[in-house]
Amino acid sequence: QVQLVESGGGSVQAGDSLTLSCTPSGRTFSGAVVGWFRQAAGEERQFVTAIRWNSENTYSADFVKGRFTISRDKAKRTVNLQMNNLEPEDTAVYYCAAGYQTWYKLTSYAETSKYDYWGQGTQVTVSS
Fold first, then answer.
1. Which one, of 27, 17, 99, 2, lies nearest residue 59 by Cα?
2. CB under 8 Å to 1, separation ≥6 — which residues?
3. CA–CA separation, 65 vs 59, rounded Å?
4. In whole angstroms, what is the distance from residue 13 CA to residue 86 CA?
5. 120 to each of 36, 39, 57, how far by Cα in Å?
6. How far is the C-alpha of 120 from the C-alpha of 15, rounded, in Å?
7. Are 33 and 50 in contact (CB under 8 A)?
8. 73 Cβ partners below 8 Å, 6+ apart?
């Protein structure tokens, strides 16, 4: 059974930075597309960014605006989300997801249906 565990969330002030990590168990990310989504209270889950593990190609939502960076840590076998200059509007539960049917173009991984496994989420709260 594949499980994904997010870590690194917390409460910060506007302008601060956080790094989230997604760690798999039961299967590595090799060959997968790993994505980050977020869901604010009362809203739908929203795509943030994704990375194709093997090529390290990435795709991000427009609102990221260069503030967030997704990367892989090959040694730790994790995927990280570096978030800089956080804003109160970034407050949400952040989820990582892994998709192993990777023949789609990377932009397609903005859709939740492209992912096979999801983590439980980690809360990020940004105060003004």
1. 99
2. 26
3. 12
4. 8
5. 12, 12, 25
6. 26
7. yes
8. 21, 79, 80
Burial class (CB in 10 A: 0-12, 13-18, 19+), 75: exposed
What are 73-115's pLDDT values in tens digits? Answer: 999 999 999 999 999 999 999 999 999 998 899 999 999 999 9
| Sign, Cα dihedral of 126, 46, 85, 17 | positive
pLDDT in tens, 17-69: 999 999 999 999 999 999 999 999 999 999 999 999 999 999 999 999 889 99
Q: Which residue has the tokens 């407050």?
A: 91
Tokens of 93: 């539960």
| Euclidean distance between CA atoms 25 and 65, whole angstroms | 31
The two tokens of residue 31 are 């060959």
27, exposed or middle or buried, with CB in 10 Å at 0-12, 13-18, 19+? middle
